[in-house]
C-alpha cells in the first residue's frame, strides 16, 4: 500500500510516496533525491527523535517503523574535513561588556539575611544559555539547551516559521546549535515553555522587565546589558560558592524583582550596558571586512554569513 510522508529539508517542504512494504533504504534514496543532499540525519515525531539510518537498519520496512503520516526533518551533516584553525594570536575575540568590580555586583538584603548578587557570565557567545542554565542547576548547559531549543522550533513549524525567525527554520536551528551563536528573546520564550518557568529579563539601560512565560508558578531572573546576559541570585554570604545560590522564586514574590531592579539601577549608573542602537561593530572573522551599526545589523550579517564574532569599532 502506498503511503505519503512529508519532508522538511533545507530546500523546502515536499512529499514522497512509497510502498509501506519497502525497506528504509528506499526511503533514504528518495529523500536524498528530493533534498539534494548526500549526507544527512533524519528526525520525526514529537518530541523529535532520531531515525536510525545506519546500514543495518535500512533493511527494516516502512510499515515496521510506523512512518505513515509522519513529517520527517532532514538535517544536513557535514562530513568534509574542517580546515585547520588560525594561529592562536589571530583568533577573533568575542565582544566584551564593560567590567564591574565584585563589590559593585551585590546589594545587602538584611530582611532575608543575605545578599542579592549579579553572577557575571563568561563572554563566550553563550551567556544567555549559561545564565539560564545555571539558574536551573545545569552543568555546562549551553549545548543541551541549544539542542532543546532547536528541536522545539522544528517541532512547532506553525508557530516558528520563517516570518518569525527571519529565515528558514532549519537554517535558523542549524546556526543556533553552534556554540558561537547568540541567543535572545525567541530562545528565552522557548526555554520558559520547556522548563515551565517565567524568565524575567531586566534591561540595564531602560530598567524594563521583559517577562517570558507569564502565568507560571516560579521565576528566574536574568540581566540584559545590551549584548550580554548575566544571572541574578541570592546568597546568605558572599563567600559561599555559586552552587548554593538561590535562583528560583515564586512569581508572587515581588520583592525579588524590586531588589533586582535596585541592583540593575546601580549597574545602570555605572553604565554597565552597551547602547546597541548606535554603537558601530566590525566582523572579526578572518577575511571579512563587514562594518555595521547596532545589534540588528549584526544579527542580519550573522544570518546571511554565519559569522558571529563581532567587536566594537573604536572611532576617534
Automatic annotation (TrEMBL):
Name of the molecule in the record: Ubiquitin thioesterase OTU
OTU domain residues: 116-235
Key word Cytoplasm present: yes
Alphabetized PANTHER family for the sequence: HIV-INDUCED PROTEIN-7-LIKE PROTEASE, UBIQUITIN THIOESTERASE OTU1
Role: Hydrolase that can remove conjugated ubiquitin from proteins and may therefore play an important regulatory role at the level of protein turnover by preventing degradation.
EC number: 3.4.19.12
CDD domains associated with the record: OTU_OTU1
Localization per Swiss-Prot or TrEMBL: Cytoplasm
Catalytic activity: Thiol-dependent hydrolysis of ester, thioester, amide, peptide and isopeptide bonds formed by the C-terminal Gly of ubiquitin (a 76-residue protein attached to proteins as an intracellular targeting signal)
Top-level EC class: hydrolase
Organism: Humicola insolens
Stretch list, region Disordered: 76-102
Amino acid at each position: 500500500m502506498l503511503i505519503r510522508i512529508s519532508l522538511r529539508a533545507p530546500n523546502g517542504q515536499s512529499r514522497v510516496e512509497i510502498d509501506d512494504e519497502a525497506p528504509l533504504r528506499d526511503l533514504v534514496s528518495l529523500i536524498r533525491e528530493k533534498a539534494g543532499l548526500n549526507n544527512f540525519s533524519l528526525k520525526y515525531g514529537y518530541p523529535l527523535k532520531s531515525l536510525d539510518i545506519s546500514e543495518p537498519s535500512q533493511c527494516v520496512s516502512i510499515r515496521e517503523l510506523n512512518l505513515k503520516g509522519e513529517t520527517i526533518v532532514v538535517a544536513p551533516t557535514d562530513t568534509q574535513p574542517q580546515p585547520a584553525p588560525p594561529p592562536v594570536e589571530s583568533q577573533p575575540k568575542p565582544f566584551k561588556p564593560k567590567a564591574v568590580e565584585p563589590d559593585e555586583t551585590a546589594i545587602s538584603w538584611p530582611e532575608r539575611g543575605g545578599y542579592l548578587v549579579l553572577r557575571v557570565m563568561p563572554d563566550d557567545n553563550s551567556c544567555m544559555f549559561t545564565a539560564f542554565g545555571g539558574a536551573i542547576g545545569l552543568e555546562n548547559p549551553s549545548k543541551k539547551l541549544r539542542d532543546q531549543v532547536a528541536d522545539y522550533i522544528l517541532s512547532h513549524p506553525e508557530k516558528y516559521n520563517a516570518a518569525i525567525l527571519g529565515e528558514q527554520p532549519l537554517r535558523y536551528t542549524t546556526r543556533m546549535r553552534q556554540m558561537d551563536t547568540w541567543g535572545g528573546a525567541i530562545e528565552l520564550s522557548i526555554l520558559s515553555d520547556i522548563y515551565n518557568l517565567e524568565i524575567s529579563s531586566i534591561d540595564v539601560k531602560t530598567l524594563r522587565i521583559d517577562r517570558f512565560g507569564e502565568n507560571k508558578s516560579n521565576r528566574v531572573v536574568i540581566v540584559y546589558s545590551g549584548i550580554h546576559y548575566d544571572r541574578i541570585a541570592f546568597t546568605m554570604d558572599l563567600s559561599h560558592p555559586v552552587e548554593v545560590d538561590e535562583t528560583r522564586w515564586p512569581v508572587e514574590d515581588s520583592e525579588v524583582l524590586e531588589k533586582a531592579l535596585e541592583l540593575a539601577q546601580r549597574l545602570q549608573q555605572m553604565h554597565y550596558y552597551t547602547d546597541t542602537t548606535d554603537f558601530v561593530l566590525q566582523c572579526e572573522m578572518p577575511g571579512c571586512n563587514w562594518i555595521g551599526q547596532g545589534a540588528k545589523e549584526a544579527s542580519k550579517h550573522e544570518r546571511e554569513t554565519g559569522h558571529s564574532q563581532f567587536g566594537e569599532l573604536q572611532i576617534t
